[in-house]
Write a structure and sequence with these properties.
Length: 118
Amino acid sequence: MASISTYQKGLWAEIFVAVIYLVHGYRLLAMRYKTGVGEIDLVLRKGENVIFAEVKARQSLDGALESLTPQMKHRISKAALHFIAANPRIAAFDMRFDFWAVRDLSTWRWMKNAWALS
């Protein structure tokens, strides 16, 4: 994947992760949801749960994990509240924040409940 741009690799990783969620019975509500306060890579639903997922594609899993800063968590949390406000029918659902570190098709890590709403 060295010959593709960072943007393309990020988009590829988000699509890859979305497919994994779909295979596990989740429904995709939004992809690359943008707000004035931040962006959420994937917003999904499973039952009465809404999942906000951040996907980082890096050359190493450690590099991806290091990119998850408190500032990023805060920005994504604020964007999640924006999404909930714009979609009141899911306001009572449980929220979960997942983080994905992706290197390639065979090297990735899914961290469910990576952080709580801040």
